[in-house]
Design brief:
Length: about 270
């Protein structure tokens, strides 16, 4: 992530916490309150670094109430959405419902959805389009498993997921889209991809977006890295030119740790 001479980033850094299936709605409120207090104590400048959380669906109404009531500058979103608008889809959640709850973002194609729920590239493309249709910005997750990484075909594999996910989007949608590169072998394993691995893939993703949508668009799309991010490795990853933010799992459940990741710039100075 490069900065211009006035200290502004090319794209606004985006630090997102994916709570996964953790935190019931009472615990979720406490976590968000603690995060907001910690960031407020540290005088975090939200205009400089955007912060978002992705709680379970059952927490979203409580999160909305807290964000509105305390006027918090924290965005929130769903961890998944249906490709359909409404109807006989038991257990699914429409993008329209997420919009109504004030969700700004929604995760699409997290590796845990791709593997545990067998979500195909076609379904994920439909979900990406459904998110835009309902005014919610998709965060499209892509990334390879260990075997693919060991075979050395990780760039091709990930770009195939990307191409399928963004198929049929307009350039404006591609510019608004957020893409999260999450190598499956680095998720929840403590095995973090090196900054150069994150940069290699994010540069490849940006080059592919440039091919598909043009350079002006690709220069706007925010690209995140996710996989075993902690406060002590966040700053080094974010120093990379094409990495615009982080999608944090386990460490986002600890408000002090997550706040330190959000405040990565203070570590850039001391690293
Ligand atoms: O999957 C992730 C975020 O979506 C990463 O999870 P961890 O940070 O726990 O490795």
């Amino acid at each position: 992530m490069t900065t211009s001479t006035n200290g502004a980033f090319d794209r606004k850094p985006f630090i997102a916490g994916n709570w996964k299936m953790n935190m019931d709605h009472v615990q979720g409120i406490t976590l968000l309150q603690k995060l907001a207090w910690t960031l407020s104590d540290a005088k975090h400048d939200y205009s400089r670094v955007e912060v978002a959380v992705f709680p379970p669906f059952t927490d979203l109404r409580g999160v909305q109430t807290l964000v509105q009531g305390d006027d918090l500058d924290v965005a929130y979103g769903g961890q998944d959405l249906s490709q359909f608008d409404s109807g006989a889809y038991t257990g699914d959640i429409s993008g329209q419902f997420l919009n109504k709850l004030g969700c700004k973002y929604v995760l699409v194609g997290h590796s845990e959805r791709r593997t545990i729920h067998n979500e195909s590239d076609d379904v994920l493309n439909a979900k990406t389009k459904a998110a835009f249709k309902h005014g919610v910005t998709p965060v499209l997750c892509v990334g390879e498993g260990l075997e693919v990484r060991q075979a050395g075909t990780h760039v091709n594999h990930t770009l195939e997921q990307l191409r399928a996910g963004v198929s049929g989007l307009t350039a404006d949608q591609a510019a608004e889209l957020v893409v999260a590169y999450e190598p499956v072998w680095a998720i929840g394993t403590g095995e973090v991809a090196g900054p150069e691995d994150a940069q290699e893939m994010c540069a490849a993703i940006r080059a592919e977006l440039e091919q598909l949508f043009g350079a002006d668009t690709a220069a706007k799309t925010r690209l995140l890295y996710g996989g075993s991010v902690k406060a002590n490795n966040a700053a080094a990853i974010l120093k990379e030119r094409d990495v615009d933010g982080l999608l944090v799992g386990g460490a986002s459940l600890d408000p002090a740790e997550f706040a330190n990741i959000v405040r990565f710039e203070s570590h850039l100075v001391t690293d």
